[in-house]
Records
---
Amino acid sequence: MKYTSSPSRFWRSASIMICLAAVALTSLHSDEGVQYPDGFRRWVHVGTGVIMPGTNPQLKSEEGMHHVFANAKAADAYMAGDFPDGSVLVYELRDAQQTNGVISEGERRRVDVMIKDSNLYKGTGGWRFERFFGDQQTENAIHDSGSSCFQCHSKADKHGFVFSQLR
């Protein structure tokens, strides 16, 4: 943008941009509606794991290729395991396909999201949990305020209730 006109025009434009940014942040961190994190595949890639079909009956729901992504706040906090408010983690589960010894990702099965806000989600370690099946981005499949997710995540209390490690 070229600013050859009055300084007041610049500040009006800047104010509008700041307001739009605030609205975007509010919608990501508000308690209303779903909070699907657009563009998460461009965040910090924490790691990838593969659970092949038939490997472990207890992990049947996790069979496939799973990637973990962290926004900048979460990535900065990984070593200490003390995640600040505004941290967002994404667990993306995709089908795993093996051809000639090469394992590659297939269709998306689901996206799980953890959003840190210690004031709003005190009963679940400060985390909001969401789940989206397939390419769905508007309907959270978690209907118990994340308590079922937290039952398992509470076992990772030494690392901010997060299982994945950034190495």
---
Amino acid sequence: MNYEDLHYFGLKVVYKDLVDNGFEVLNVRKELDVNPQILARKAETLYFIVVRTATFPDMGLLTPEVAANVSRHAMKHKAVCRFASVGVANAKGDNDEIMSKPEIDGEYYINYKGLMPFPQ
């Protein structure tokens, strides 16, 4: 799985979680350089969601620069910012090296703890 595949996989994980939790997903952008990736609504509140995905043993990270830029944009639209960090491991791996290389259409362990507020 290359970085684009990994990013898209993380978006699908977060999208499913949002739908399962009653969010209306308004837009999803899979481009790597677009922030936020997901625009959603729940109970009349607009959400800007930044998704970052990494391979085992890491988790996706939100950089201060991205957080600041998305926060400024969200203020103009009265939106709430949330961050979704996703970690993906190859479930067929029996050591750290193999687990850190998820394969397309493979089996995965997913580390995702839901939406987190942006740091203040």
